[in-house]
Amino acid sequence: MEDILGQAMRPPINLKEFLKNYQDILKPPYTLPVTDIKLQKSMKLLEDHERFQEAEENCSLEILETSDDARITDFIPGFTELPRKSITELPTDALPLRTVTTLLKLKENTQKNPFQRSTDIYSLIKLPTAIAEKEEYTPGQELKIYIRVYRPARATHEHRTLEKPVLAEEFECLGSNFLTELRDKIQCVCNHKRFFDISENPEAPLPSKETEPGYFFITDTFYNDKRNPLNADYSTNIREWARNAKGLQNVKFKTALMEETRFIDLTVSLGFPQHYQHHGNCEHVFVFSQLEVIATPATQMLPRYYYPRLKSYSHFNNRLCNTCGNLHFVYVVEGSNRQVHDPAYMCKKCFLSYHYIDGKKVGQFRAYRLIDCNNESEEMKDEGNPAGSTVDVDSMDNLASILDGSYEEEDDAEASNARIKAEVKAKQK
């Protein structure tokens, strides 16, 4: 990985030791040592204690304070900035007017955080209004960890060069969160679905998956999700391969359970790519981008049940129907003798009207339905919605490895079609 990135891996940080070192160095009440003796010596008043005490009392902050002093608060970007108040006060009689309500709504929308990152890159999730309870957090006892998840890379590249990572989602996690909590929040088109050719019955229900195997590879450890005992251990084959791989013979990879590991138990290298694999061969890269010790929970934190919290997401992953260009695609068509594009991305309406006559298949093609949605939800152009409502098609340009069921946990297409036909006939009866 170092050779590919062209940079060395930073020394790993044990998060538990990192928090302990912080607590040892900065203990409450976070004050500097008393320096009265040095101050008295610099004033040449070591022998005149009464005069030094009098000067100390005259310079006390309590004497210097007045009731008209400006309020001083700690400035934390994104939390403590206050919107400017309008100098002109609107009369109460004018509030019901439509022009006034429209103006107030526009002003509310323009009062944005000046430190917000550009929406041209990705959108930030608005902070909930809920406030953390005081007893939920103790200052200096919790870590906040920022994790950036990138979309799966293309299987092939036209210029045969490495593709630059493209951000999909960014999460805020607590040190007390389990790894499985983050995995359940990561959005991917492959989650909970099995893909096979449905061209013979385009509206057949997609069967749910009985298992959801996957792992996080962090530093030198595979964290496998074994909440379901039937989940396969994907790391077994990789560890077998590494025993004979060039340069890895002396590296001992460890394994652990994802559902029993908290983030505070990890040893990570900030900014260095880690690996998440699921659904057979769907691979994501993610990085630990930032660590924070929670020193002021009242201004930094939300209630615990919000974490892991989706902080930002990429919003340019949508792809519209190749035919109408108005709706989001629902079907992916491959090997069609009537389509210009291969693969072709089509909405439900265009797909059924172009490829079927009276419900019968026209021409030769393979079709895969990636999204279960009705016409109402299909017509929504959810550019402002989180990534869970969109599909990143660019990460699936090489659909053969994912859609053709070429990995162990998926059945072949013929067996899947036979099973679906049997289920549909049973429901019709």
Descriptive report:
With 429 residues, the protein is of the alpha+beta class. The strands form 4 sheets. The protein has a 9-stranded mixed β-sheet with strand order 2-11-4-3-10-9-5-6-7. β14 and β15 form a beta hairpin. The radius of gyration is 29 Å and the shape is flat. The relative contact order is 0.15. About 12% of the residues have low confidence. It is found in: Nucleus. Pfam families: SNAPC3. This is snRNA-activating protein complex subunit 3. GO terms for molecular function: bent DNA binding; core promoter sequence-specific DNA binding; RNA polymerase II cis-regulatory region sequence-specific DNA binding; RNA polymerase III type 3 promoter sequence-specific DNA binding. It comes from Glossina fuscipes.
Summary tags:
429 residues, alpha+beta, nine-stranded mixed beta sheet, three-stranded antiparallel beta sheet, 23% helix, flat
Task: Quickly describe the structure.
With 429 residues, this protein is of the alpha+beta class. It has 13 helices and 16 strands. Residues 113-121 and 374-417 have low confidence and may be disordered.
Describe how the helices and strands are arranged.
Elements: H1 2-5, E1 13-14, H2 15-25, H3 36-42, H4 49-58, H5 61-64, H6 98-110, E2 123-124, E3 143-150, E4 167-174, H7 179-185, E5 214-218, E6 221-224, H8 235-242, E7 254-257, E8 267-268, E9 274-278, E10 282-293, H9 297-300, E11 309-313, E12 331-334, E13 344-346, H10 348-355, E14 356-357, E15 360-361, E16 366-369, H11 375-378, H12 400-403, H13 413-428
Parallel strand pairs: 6-7
Antiparallel strand pairs: 1-8, 2-11, 3-4, 3-10, 4-11, 5-6, 5-9, 9-10, 12-13, 12-16, 14-15
